[in-house]
Specification:
By secondary structure, this protein is of the alpha/beta class. The chain is built from nine helices and twelve strands. Helix 1 packs across helix 2 and helix 1 crosses helix 4.
């Protein structure tokens, strides 16, 4: 049994006339009759009642016709989906991101992704930049959103968003936006930073900001997560330096003082494995570039 035999049967079942069906299929009528007869012999089932005047479907033929029509509908869907997957408009993409990415451009990208490519399924996984690099190289995620990525010959990286740093202080701290002159005023404060081993370049940048102001920071506490850092600050456990975008997201008793005058800026980048062959990845990258300009 071949698909062409099934297509022949469908046309005969719809026309209930061998000559018209043969004309529609562009084959000779005797050849069409032989093909239907071979199909019935292969199934060992009578599908059509033939007389000199009429052709009728048997009960088995009616059932077979319905199932074959459903089969061809499924085949058409499979072909369409295969083309969409090849073009990147469908399929699946796994996305890694640092939590702070959700405070800038990532929500806008995800919203556009859902609207523009409804058949492209995606998974979001929050993880540190270091873990993202490992997962990208192991092909366990397709694209990562990370801050200050380290250089890696296996990955392609592109900056998509840049923002300032801010000093984050308890709400009742004596330093305010009015009397703040520079980081040197905070030399004796206790700082809360993320561990160096989970984000070496980010950590080193924070240290360099303090060093440029003439002091080495006293690191009293460490935390992987910015929301935990903010809660520690709220409870007078220390101060920190965070992306300015956090100022809009947390309902906490803290204050942000934006460091507009320093040259350093915090970058959010996308990264992907240069050997990744997922067609949806290129579609995702194109959509990101269109979204962020």
């Amino acid at each position: 049994m071949e698909l062409r035999h099934l297509r022949y049967f469908v046309v005969v079942a719809e026309e209930l006339h061998f000559r018209r069906a043969a004309e529609k299929l562009f084959i000779a009528q005797p050849a069409l009759s032989r093909q239907i007869k071979l199909l019935e012999e292969d199934l060992n089932v009578l599908l059509l009642k033939r007389t000199k005047r009429v052709v009728l479907l048997t009960e088995a033929g009616k059932f077979f016709y319905k199932e074959v029509k459903d089969l061809f509908t499924a085949i058409d869907l499979i072909k369409t989906k295969a083309k969409e997957i090849e073009s990147g408009a469908a399929g699946k993409i796994k996305i890694g991101y640092v939590g702070s990415a959700m405070l800038s451009v990532l929500p806008k990208i995800i919203t556009k992704l859902q609207k523009s490519l409804p058949d492209l399924h995606f998974e979001l996984h929050e993880m540190t930049a270091m873990v993202q690099v490992e997962m990208l190289k192991a092909d366990k995620i397709d694209i990562g959103f990370l801050r200050i990525p380290r250089d890696d010959k296996d990955l392609i990286m592109q900056t998509i968003f840049t923002e300032t740093y801010s000093i984050v202080l308890p709400e009742n701290h004596k330093i305010t936006t009015k009397n703040f002159k520079g980081l040197h005023q905070l030399a004796n404060e206790k700082f809360i930073f993320p561990p160096r081993n989970v984000g070496q370049r980010y950590f080193d940048t924070l240290i360099s900001l303090c060093t440029a102001a003439g002091f080495s920071p006293i690191i009293a506490h460490e935390s992987l997560f910015e929301n935990a850092i903010i809660r520690l600050i709220e409870n007078d456990m220390g101060i920190s330096i965070l992306p300015s975008s956090f100022n809009k997201e947390f309902n906490a008793k803290v204050k942000f003082i934006e460091l507009k005058k320093i040259p350093q800026r915090l970058q959010l980048s996308i990264a992907w494995n240069k050997d990744n062959i997922n067609p949806s990845l290129l579609t995702m990258i194109k959509l990101i570039r269109e979204t962020v300009g």
